[in-house]
Amino acid sequence: MKGESQAGLRTPFVIIMMAIGILLFWLVHSLASKKTPNPTQTPVLASAPPPAVQIAKPVAVAPVVVAASAAPVVVTTSRRGFAAFFREDIAATNAELGVELAMQQMATNDPAALADWVKNILQQGGQFDGIDPAHITAAAVQALIQSSNAILARDAIAQWMQLPNGPEVGNTALETAARDLAATSPTDALNWLKSLPAGDDRNYAMTTLAADWVKTDPKSAMDWTMQLSDTDGRTAAMERAFNNWAQADDESARQWIKNHLDDPAAETMVTSMVAESGLSYSNPQEAIVWADMISNPSARLENVQDIFLSWVRREPDAAADDIRNDPVLTPDEKKQVLQSFFGWKNSGAAN
Fold first, then answer.
1. Which end of the chain is more exposed for a tag (fewer CB within 10 A), N or C?
2. Ramachandran region of residue 128, left (φ > 0), alpha (ψ -120 to 50) or beta?
3. pLDDT tens digits for 309-336?
4. Is 131 helix (H, G, I), strand (E, B) or coil?
5. For position 342, what pLDDT does the model report?
6. Is 112 left (phi over 0), alpha (psi -120 to 50) or beta?
7. Bridge partners of 128?
8. Residue 156, number of CB atoms within 10 A of its CB
9. Is the dihedral of CA 95, 148, 212, 282 positive or negative?
């Protein structure tokens, strides 16, 4: 009885354990089937990229195209070859200093590129970061000369001045290059300036160089200015050089002008010497000697009278005596000069 009861008990137990096993197997199989992708769907996923990938392609390309086409030409050209030397942090507080420092480095590393960069700036109208074009050319020439590229500087100036529409190169750039050359040959420097296209900047630079040269070789300087044409600014060059000479050595200058009184510019030079040199105040007696050289009677009298009026307020007796003893003025002219100062007229000094 005991054995039969045990056998009866085993049968339900076995059945229960088999049921549990089948249930576990089904659960495991179900979980495994959910994690494993359907092989029939794999080609679809591989051949058809998600919509996000297809949208991303045109978005990535579009900014590149827009940036390239929207860049202003002036910025690209202006910075070309210059950006490597340009310090934005310095330029932010002092634009001119920033450009000058960049030019100095560029002149040392790539001087030809510097000359070309300035040429491009002038072709665009001459403005860079609000800096005047004459300042740009002057700084570039100075940088080229300091980096032992003086010949390149002169050649660059010649090219800049031949650009269409006559860009403003400025007299300072011309004077800087010419003075460097004049250190060895003033004649070559002036001839180089004369070879450039005619214009106010070139003419003013020639007057500056002539005025410099007259300090060391006045006669040669004056002879050179005399061969200039009116288009070259002949009178202005002669006048400025002569004034410098007369202030340094009035005796030699006066002797030279006496030998050239037939020159059309002589009258202007003497008048300028009297009126603009300061001699009328520093040495009025000498100034009247100069004024007496003026050939036009009315112009001569006017200049003498101006000198006298400045002098008589300070030294009345000396001024009056000088007019009375003047070897050029006529008696009537002397009386007119003396009477021009009402104090002398009232006191009878004109008699």
1. N
2. beta
3. 999 999 999 999 999 999 999 999 999 9
4. strand
5. 63
6. alpha
7. 131
8. 25
9. positive
pLDDT in tens, 260-316: 888 888 888 888 878 777 788 889 998 999 899 888 899 899 999 999 999 999 999
Rounded distance between C-alpha atoms, residue 94 and residue 331, angstroms: 65
Residue the block writes with tokens 């009537």: 332
Listing DSSP states for 282-342 in one string gives H-HHHHHHHHTT-SSHHHHHHHHHHHHHHHHTT-HHHHHHHHHT-SSS-HHHHHHHHHTSH
- Provide the 3-class DSSP secondary structure of residue 128: strand
In whole angstroms, give the CA distance from residue 337 to residue 332: 9
261 secondary structure, DSSP code: T
227: buried, middle or exposed (CB in 10 Å: 19+, 13-18, 0-12)? Answer: exposed
DSSP 38: P
Q: What is the DSSP letter of 139?
A: H
Amino acid at 110: D
Q: Identify the residue whose tokens are 């006559």.
A: 166
* Encoded tokens for 266: 């002589």
Region 27-56 average pLDDT: 48
Q: How far apart are CA 275 and CA 322, in angstroms?
A: 19
pLDDT digits (tens, 9 = 90+) for 102-133: 889 999 999 999 999 999 889 887 667 678 88
Q: In 72-146, at which residue ranges do the beta strands (DSSP E only) sit?
A: none
Residue 269 and residue 274: Cα distance in Å, rounded?
A: 9
Q: Contact, 308 vs 341, CB < 8 A? A: yes
Cα 147 from Cα 140, distance rounded (Å): 11
- What is the CA 133 to chain-centroid distance, rounded? 4
Task: Tell me how far CA of residue 16 lies from CA of 4, 24, 25, 42, in angstroms.
Answer: 19, 12, 14, 41
Tokens (6 digits) for 309: 């009026």
Query: For residue 7, is pLDDT > 80?
Result: no
Euclidean distance between CA atoms 229 and 134, whole angstroms:
26
What letter represents residue 54's amino acid?
Q
pTM listed for this prediction:
0.65
What is the C-alpha separation between 171 and 159, in angstroms, rounded? Answer: 15
